[in-house]
Specification:
Blueprint (H helix, E strand, L loop, with lengths): L8 E6 L10 H9 L2 E6 L7 H6 L8 E5 L8 H21 L2 E6 L8 H12 L4 E5 L4 H9 L10 E5 L4 H8 L4 E5 L5 H10 L7 E4 L7 E4 L13 E4 L12
Parallel strand pairs: 1-4, 1-5, 2-3, 2-4, 6-7
Antiparallel strand pairs: 7-10, 8-9, 8-10
């Protein structure tokens, strides 16, 4: 692999949940200033949500698709091989370009593919400068679109990926404050049951494809056990008595 100058920059840019209007001005500037914009895909024939968003701001010829094992959780060897191959590809791009941006849905520091890429590149490309540009998260977008208030006063906020199992979600729902669940679509039936058991069903709301044509935002009470899109998001607001400033 060619040597990469220490001035090379890898910038993780959060492009939000899918609505192109929710990409920050700083994010747009970073995408446009980069020599190349990498977008993660599950296979080279797919246009993912990150790429669809980026295309509102940069031309197609500036975008490079890199394959990641985005949903591989069972075959550790296959996942590691995919990460290594993706890291090698991005390292090659850094060897040829001073600045490479990586577009990730949501925020690059919140359950993002970029975290693993940056770790891999740090070992492959000594001296590379790694930066991030924050992005709007799905929980923020869902709160805005549904009217759910995430936190008030001294309430805690707990974010749980349901890929960790419904027991982790149940523990969080049994505690105080608002609970947000990510990636719960395939376990929608279990999530609905946990919400009922903890008395958090009626106030909870879920959403998917936020800001896109296929957007769906509904009360969690409507969950019927059918699987939902993988990237569905759930908000179970804190228990509140309705008074203004009651949690201050």
């Amino acid at each position: 692999m060619p040597d990469v100058m220490s001035s090379s920059r890898l910038i993780g840019v959060g492009v939000g949940p899918g609505d192109p209007e929710l990409v920050t001005v700083k994010g747009v500037n970073a995408l446009r200033a980069a020599d190349v914009v990498v977008v993660p895909v599950m296979d080279t024939g797919e246009r993912g949500r990150a790429e669809a968003t980026v295309l509102h701001y940069v031309p197609q010829e500036k975008i490079v698709r890199v394959v990641f094992a985005l949903n591989e959780r069972n075959d550790h060897g296959r996942r590691e091989a995919a990460w290594d191959a993706a890291g090698e590809r991005v390292a090659q791009l850094l060897a040829a370009h001073p600045s490479v941006a990586f577009a990730t849905i949501g925020d690059p520091n919140v359950y993002s593919t970029f975290t693993y890429l940056a770790h891999t590149i740090g070992a492959l490309v000594p001296g590379v400068v790694v930066e991030t540009v924050p992005g709007i998260t799905a929980m923020q977008d869902l709160a805005a679109r549904s009217g759910a208030v995430l936190t008030e006063g001294t309430e805690p906020l707990t974010l749980v990926p349901v890929t960790a199992g419904s027991a982790v979600l149940k523990d969080a729902l049994s505690g105080p404050g608002t609970v947000v669940a990510y990636k719960f679509g395939r376990q929608a039936a279990e999530v609905a049951e946990v919400l009922r058991e903890t008395g958090r069903l009626d106030d909870a709301v879920w959403g998917s494809a936020l800001g896109l044509e296929a957007e769906s935002i509904r009360s969690a009470a409507e969950l019927d056990g059918a699987p939902l899109p993988y990237l569905s998001t759930l908000i179970a607001p804190a228990r509140r008595d309705g008074s203004r400033g009651g949690k201050l």
